[in-house]
Structures are given as C-alpha cells and as structure tokens.
Design goal:
513 residues; six-stranded parallel beta sheet; four-stranded mixed beta sheet; 51% helix; elongated
Length: 513
C-alpha cells in the first residue's frame, strides 16, 4: 500500500491555499483498520516517533496525577457531572441558548455535518471575508469544515502549531492532543522551509530543526495572519449552560489571539460539551490539564460570554452540532463515550495506538476513544467503521487512565456484539448457535468430543475460509486424545474401587493431573 493510501494524505502537487481548494486530504475512503494498521506497523520511523512521544506524555501525566490524594474523587465527580448533564441534556441546551442569546450571541442548531457547514459558510460569506483563522477544533475536523469552506472560496488557516504542520503538509491529524505526533522535528523543518511561503510569511532560509527555532518560525508566520484576519472559527472544550460561557484550553496562546482580535467569532461545539455551572467547570479544569499535557494548570484558558461592546469580537455565533450524538445518547451502554473531554490519555497508554498510529483509525478521533465514538457517530454498516471495535486488545488500560471513567472495553464489546449481529455475520451467528446447542446437552457434548478426538490427526493448523485471520497470530489448540470427562470416569471409578483414604488421595491426585 502506498503512503498516500495508507495515511489518506496527498503527496506532491500544489499545496498553496488555492491548490488545496481543488482537493484535500481526507479520512473518507481509507481502508479498514486491519489493513491500514498492517501497513503502519511496518513504518519504523512512525513507530519510533509514536513510542517516544506517547511515553513522554504519559510519564508526565503519571507524575502530576500522583500528586493528588483526591484524584479518584475528582474522577468520580467528573463522571457524575457528565452523566447528570447527559440525562438532562435537552434542558441544559435550552438554558445555554437562552444565556448566549441574552449575552448578545446568536445560536444555530445543526443536525448534521452538511447543515453545520452550510451555516458556517453562510456566516463567513455574510462578512464579505474570504479568509478565516481557526483554533484547533475536532468538531470542525469531524464535519470537514475546511473542505466545505474551500469549495466556497474561503481559506481556513490553522493556528495551532501541530495543526499548522498538518495543514502545510496536506496531511491528516493522528492524535487528539498532538495532531502531528507522527512527525519528527527534521520533517517539520522541511515542511516549513518548503511550504510556508505559499501560505504567508516564509520560513527563514537557514531554519534549523531546533524546537525553539521552529516555534519562532511559526510565530512569525502566524502573527501577520492574526493581525489582519477579521473572522475566526473555534471549537470549545466546555460550554457553561447557566452563563452561556464558552471555554477553550490551549497551550500556545494562538487561541487567545483568535478569540480576541477578529471582528466575528464562530464557535462550532458538539452538544455534549455542556457543563451545567461554573462550579462543575472547576472539576474539569483540574482533570483535563493533568490528563492531557501532564500539567497542573493549563497555560491558556480563555472564556467568553456573548459580545462585549468595544472588547473582542463584536459578532458571536454558536453552532450547536448533533451529527449523530443524539443516536449515541440513546444507547444506554455506548452513551458514556459522550463523557469524553478529549484529553487523549487513552491514546497515550494504548499499546495498539502506539504501534499503529492515528491514521489507521480512519477518523479524526483515533485510538481507543475513536474506536468507540466513530462507529457510533457514523454507524457500523461499512467495513472501516465495523472494524474499529476490534482495534483493541481489551487490556483495559484506557479505562484506568480515563479522567471521566469511560469504560471503553465495555463499549468495545458492546459494539462488537452489534457488528456480529449484523447481516454480514450470519456465519459467525450460526457457529455460535451450533456451539450453544452442543454445549447445552451433556450427551451431545460427549458425542462431539469423541468424534473430534477420533479425527484429531486430521485437524488443520489454521482455520479455513474467512476464519483464517483468527489463526494468523495464534495456533489452533491441540485436540486431546481423550476428553477430561472420559478420563475422569475411568480414573475415578478405579480410585473409588480402592475405597477409604486411599480413594480420596487418588481423587485429589487425579484432580491435580
């Protein structure tokens, strides 16, 4: 498989804003996880980059979490707040709309990606501008807003450093917190030197791969963009229902620039991002920094409520996005995925993600959380989505580190059951039905065991047909010459014939054998 096919990104061609309008890297059409992961695990540089980055982040997280004696209580509180909010989501959404409107903002409701893209495109067009700056937003990546804007002749400029790297290289994000985690600094230097000029201020000719030099090149490149762009698009980490306040947490200051300098601000926010009150927010402002960046407090926490005359954007629009979330909410087991605060702790601990990387998941939501969220948002009718619940060893590490206690293994098993119950798994259902019939009767089980033992020499080492994949990494267990039940009848009868303590000892020895 070619690198372009494996990652979904384009190589070569025109990467200027005008060139990108003609075509974009996209997750759509990517191969199922087993196929994509097989190719990704063969990339030694990718594995090295991922291993180094994820282990560094999770070690930092473990250190700051270990400082808190009440971490388990905070985790339980976060879970409880999210569960209570989801149970009464309709009421909190209406409360949020009222508060935002009272503060001078406008609220728009989007049922799906198409509707959200149409709303945002219309709002940008109404300003007469053709450029927008963006704060990193997974919701806008989920609906492929940049591509929709490009088709309307509007260029979206990413301002988060990692998102800038991804955009300049026409790549795709591969991590929730660090979208360019699959790139090393030598690659980033070449991307900046080769492609920055087409998007604005060029990189210095003598640019090195020192992190400080790379950050400075990005700072100079973005500063000019911040100062002259009049429309910004953001997401939100949280939306406080009782005050109508949006909250964005970031580490570079680009968010603060986007949220204060432009004249118009449009925020696209998933309906699950609500917290009822400011006191609820306090819990998450402790959980999120520690679980995501391994910091005690987030470097930049920006909050805004509507419009304030003479201060910041003078026009604020909130687009509340459903896009499948109501369907997830209706699933009593799967709805816990909507607790997610996008910290990425589950990615950094996951042995599958560390080896396969984010692109293999075929979605802006990679790793364990993506393996349960994407199939619920998109459905499991197509092969890529149906393969994701199986992209896990079910080791449970993701559940242990989740700051809001999402039982990801439970949801994975739940979704596997859903996939297995679909029309495409009739053979598996038939096999499980036959096994249930055999195991449901002692005589039937005995007859099958005797028959199987009689032909044990003919047993293959690999499963035939579609089941062959099961034995790609494991052997079929050896079939014993005699079943345990048969052996016990024979040995037990002999032991009983001895009687007394000797018979008892024989039974115990037989049990140990």
């Amino acid at each position: 498989m070619s690198p372009e096919h494996r990652t979904g990104r384009r190589t070569g061609g025109d990467r200027s804003p005008a060139g990108r309008a003609a075509g974009h890297a996209t997750f759509m059409g990517m191969p199922p996880f087993p196929e994509a992961a097989k190719s990704a695990t063969g990339d030694s540089q990718l594995r090295h980059n991922l291993r180094k980055a994820t282990r560094t982040i999770r070690d930092k997280r473990a250190g700051v979490v270990g400082e808190l004696d009440d971490w388990s209580d905070l985790r339980a509180a976060g879970k409880a707040i999210k569960d209570r909010t989801l149970r009464h989501l309709d009421g909190y959404l209406e409360q949020l709309e009222e508060a935002v409107t009272a503060a001078g903002g406008r609220v728009h409701w989007a049922a799906d990606a198409g509707e959200a893209n149409e709303i945002v495109t219309g709002l940008v067009r109404a300003t007469g501008e053709s450029d927008v700056v963006k704060v990193k937003s997974m919701a806008t990546q989920e609906i492929e807003l940049n591509e929709a804007l490009a088709q309307a002749g509007i260029t979206a400029y990413e301002t988060d450093l990692a998102e800038l790297i991804v955009q300049l290289s026409d790549d795709l994000p591969s991590h929730i917190l660090v979208p360019a985690i699959h790139r090393n600094r030598a690659e980033i230097r070449e991307i900046f030197r080769d492609r920055m000029a087409a998007w604005g201020v060029p990189a210095p000719e003598a640019l090195s791969d020192d992190p400080r030099a790379l950050a400075e090149a990005a700072r100079v490149h973005l500063r000019e963009r911040f100062l002259r762009t009049k429309v910004a698009i953001s997401g939100a980490n949280f939306a406080v229902a009782d005050t109508g306040t949006m909250v964005v947490l970031e580490s570079e200051g680009n968010g603060r620039m986007c949220l204060t300098l432009p004249e118009t601000l449009i925020s696209v926010v998933g309906i699950e991002k609500i917290v009822p009150t400011w006191s609820d927010l306090e819990v998450f402002l402790q959980l999120l920094p520690r679980s995501s960046t391994g910091e005690r407090m987030n470097p930049y926490t920006s909050t805004w409520s509507g419009v304030t005359p003479g201060d910041g954007p003078q026009e604020f629009h909130l687009v509340l996005l459903d896009n499948g979330r109501s369907d997830v909410l209706a699933d009593e087991v799967g709805r816990q995925a909507l607790r997610c605060i996008r910290c990425s702790a589950c990615l950094n601990i996951c042995p599958v993600y560390e080896r396969a990387g984010g692109h293999a998941y075929g979605s802006v939501y990679p790793g364990p959380i993506g393996a349960i969220l994407t199939p619920q948002l998109r459905g499991t009718a197509s092969e890529p989505e149906a393969s994701l619940p199986y992209a896990s060893s079910l080791c449970g590490a993701c559940y242990e580190v989740c700051p809001v206690a999402i039982d990801i293994p439970e949801v994975l098993v739940h979704l596997r059951e859903e996939v297995a119950s679909s029309a495409g798994h009739r053979a598996e259902k038939a096999a499980m039905g036959a096994a249930g019939w055999v195991l449901g009767g002692e005589r039937r089980l005995g007859a099958v065991q005797r028959a199987t033992s009689a032909v044990r020499s003919l047993a293959p080492r690999r499963m035939p047909g579609p089941a062959a994949a099961w034995t790609d990494t494991r052997d079929i267990p050896d079939i014993p010459a005699e079943s345990f039940r048969s052996w016990w009848r024979r040995e037990g009868a002999a032991e009983d014939a001895d009687g007394g303590a000797g018979g008892e000892r024989g039974g115990q020895e037989g049990g140990r054998r």
